[in-house]
Amino acid sequence: MTARPSVLFVCVHNAGRSQMAAGWLRELAGDRIEVRSAGSAPADSINPAAVEAMAEVGIDISHQNPKILTPESVQASDVVITMGCGDVCPYYPGKRYEDWKLEDPAGKGVAEVRPVRDGIRTRIEELIASLLPEHAPTTPAKN
């Protein structure tokens, strides 16, 4: 793994779960972890209920856009976290893969998206702990 770990979140539309996960990781890890997200069949825009649910906890994902999953984005990442994209996700040896079973928020209202959002936060906290052990410095050393 590189000095600054890189995580790629992948779901089908890159409009809900993967965008919320990326938002949480940016918020909780800051610049200590590089964050990417993509979809195997990206939507035209972010799920408004996901945007609203994240705004409720002070995280703005409204400026994000769904992106297509590319082999290059997988190759450039240390950890690939999939959320329902199945066999469409490319596999490269040497990468850490996790498949998070999360309800798809597509077509749901904000009340139904909140539990998904909160479940993602818990997983993100566990991910950060695994990538940035307590003894790791939180800021780069200055020479």
What layout of secondary structure does this protein have?
Blueprint: E1 6-11, H1 17-29, E2 34-39, H2 48-56, H3 71-75, E3 79-83, E4 96-99, H4 110-131
Parallel strand pairs: 1-2, 1-3, 3-4
Describe this structure in words.
Helices cover 34% and strands 15% of the residues. It is an alpha/beta fold. A 4-stranded parallel β-sheet has the order 2-1-3-4, covered by helices on one side. α1 (17-29) links the parallel β1 and β2 (34-39). It is globular, with a radius of gyration of 15 Å. The two termini are 23 Å apart.
- Multimerization state: single chain
The counted number of beta strands is: 4
Taking Cα atoms only, what radius of gyration do you get, to the nearest Å?
Answer: 15 Å
Measured distance between first and last alpha carbons? 23 Å
Can you give the mean pLDDT?
89
Overall geometry comes to globular
Largest sheet: 4 strands, parallel
Short descriptors:
143 residues, alpha/beta, 4-stranded parallel sheet, disordered C terminus
Give a brief outline of the structure:
The protein contains 4 helices and 4 strands; from the N terminus they run E-H-E-H-H-E-E-H. With 143 residues, it is α/β, with parallel strands linked by helices.
